[in-house]
Amino acid sequence: MQKLNFKRTIRTNILILKLMGLWPEDDNTYTLNLYTMYAFITIVVIMGGHNFFQIINICFVYKDLEALATTIFITSTEVLVLVKVYFFTQNIGRLKNLLSLLKKDVFQPRNEKQMELIEPTLDFWKNVHRSFMFIAVSTIVVQSVNKNQLPFAAWYPYDYTVTPFYELTYSYQVIGMWYIAISNVNIGTLFYALLTYIVVQCDILCDDCKNLTNERSSFSQRLVSCLKHHKEILSFSQNVNDLFEMVILGQFVTSTVVIATTLFMLTLVDPLSEEGFVTVLYAIAIITEIFIYCWFGNQVNLKVR
Question: Which ranges does the record mark as transmembrane (predicted)?
Answer without folding.
Answer: 32-53, 65-88, 177-200, 243-265, 277-296
